[in-house]
Amino acid sequence: MATAGVRNKVERKGCEGIYYEDLKSGRRSYIATWRIPVIDLDDPDLIKWRSIERRATSLEEAKLLRAEGQMAAREPIVELDPDRQLDALVKGIKDTILLPAWVNSVEEMKLEDHRSEATVKRDASLIRNHIIPHWSKTPVTSVRKLDVQKWVKVLSTKLAPATVAKAFGLFKSAMEEAVDNGLLTDNPCRKVKLPKIKDKESDFLEANEIRNLAEAVRDRRYRMAVLLGGFTGMRWGEVFSLTLDDLHLDHEVPHLWVRHSLDRDTLALGDTKNDQSVRQVTLTPELVTEMREHLQSFGSSSPERCESPKCPASVHDTGLVFVGQKGGPVSYWFFRDRILTPACEEALGRRVNFRLLRHSHTRQLQDAGDLDSWDIADRLGQNQLKTTRRYSKTHLSRQARVAERMAEIQSRPNLRAV
User: Fold this and answer.
1) 363, 373, 354: which is closest to 398 by C-alpha?
2) Dist. CA 78–CA 352, nearest whole Å
3) What is the pLDDT of residues 226-270, one digit of tens each?
């Protein structure tokens, strides 16, 4: 029987091994030991070896700790500052921290910021599908710039450049945190080349095409949703989260309030995409008339009428303007596949998504000519002007105005010759 407080060998090879120790409490503690090569800054050609110990509660955990430590010790580390060296060794040395755990830790620290729920889900998906699978067994300190560039190249073969940039941005921020916390001396993502995001000509719908699309909707209860998307620029989640309390049709300036957004997955009323998205959207007389007819014909949901088992309790707080066949919230996938796609093929001869209606409204506002960019951004609930201006880059009619203006300038007499 092992004596309390005395180390007993489980397995050992050279100076590395696993031991167990019976504590006075009756529990058994396991100790994993291994060595790491260290470069002395005073003599870079000299490689020293330092012994590392980590305690574990089980033999399996001890074996895993030692395996991870040995993998991390394949390349020498730089000698730490003397004031921090002992602290780092006591904690088990930084090289045992695997990259997936570090990235997830950094992501958890971001949850208190002002990102929307959709952004949090998107980032989690990028980490889960494109970062962790590639770097699953890599210690943070083993990441090199060449490795990052190879990873970006792999992503570029299967993802769009914009998606690659988002995944790389998350990875880069995690590496920056590693530098700030002393795990790395330099960010390996610095000067890594990303695939170029090419500006492609955007597709837009004219006002008559939006009306034709709305008329082609077979289920008439969703016709008004198409008109709101095309003539107010509201997002899908904003349109289908509208409640009766949000409508102010009898106001001196008819408008509606955008306060919530319908979650695609849970069908619950959540927060808007950003703080700027909480806004008032004015309605034209045409939209006011269409909305009154919609409410008269289809009404709204109520706790008694909603029969959908997926209907969250939050939608019962007040009636929804747009409801499904069972009185509950409208599924995004149902609307896209069963309502919008057939209407698009009939009216336009091609498939478009709901976002195109928002882009089309942006173009309509830009065509007005006398609207400030901030006015357009406020109506659309955008917090950055670069997002608003993105839709005017390929707008040929706007470039035609520039050409006309330049023609006027070129036709002026040469005042210098006078």
Assistant:
1) 363
2) 55
3) 999 999 999 999 999 999 989 999 999 999 999 988 887 778 888
pTM surpassing 0.85? no
Q: pLDDT per residue over 272-308, tens digit each?
A: 887 788 999 999 999 999 999 999 888 654 433 444 4
* DSSP track, 58-108: SHHHHHHHHHHHHHHTTSPEEPPPHHHHHHHHHTT-GGG-BHHHHHHHHHH
Radius of gyration for the chain, computed over Cα atoms and rounded to the nearest angstrom: 30
Q: Who's near 248: CB < 8 A, 6+ residues apart? A: 254, 255, 256, 257
CB 110 within 8 Å of CB 126: no
Which value, to the nearest 10 degrees, does the dihedral of the CA atoms of residues 74, 75, 78, 84 take?
-30
C-alpha to C-alpha distance for 162 and 172, rounded to whole angstroms: 15
Q: Answer yes or no: are the C-beta atoms of 320 and 305 closer than 8 Å.
A: no
In 3D space, the residue among 212, 183, 2 whose CA is nearest the CA of residue 96 turns out to be: 183
**CB–CB of 341/356 below 8 Å?**
no
**How deeply is 230 buried, as exposed, middle or buried, from its count of CB atoms within 10 A (0-12, 13-18, 19+)?**
buried
- Cα separation, 207 vs 213, whole angstroms: 10
Q: Could you give the strand order of the β-sheet that contains 255-258, starting from the edge strand earlier in sequence?
A: 247-248, 255-258, 279-282
The token pair that represents 281 in the structure block: 């959207």
Beta strands per DSSP E along 163-322: 247-248, 255-258, 261-262, 269-270, 279-282
158 by Cβ neighbours in 10 Å (0-12 / 13-18 / 19+) ranks as exposed
Name the 3-class secondary structure at 382: coil
Q: Residue 230's closest CA among 343, 310, 126, 132? A: 343
Q: In terms of Cα–Cα distance, which of 121, 107, 365 is closest to 237?
A: 121
Q: What span, in angstroms and rounded, lies between the C-alpha atoms of 151 and 145?
A: 10
Angle, CA of 117, 123 and 235, to the nearest 5°: 45
DSSP β-ladder status, 7-13 and 16-22:
antiparallel
Residue 63: strand pairing partners: none
The tokens describing 203, both together, are 């597709």
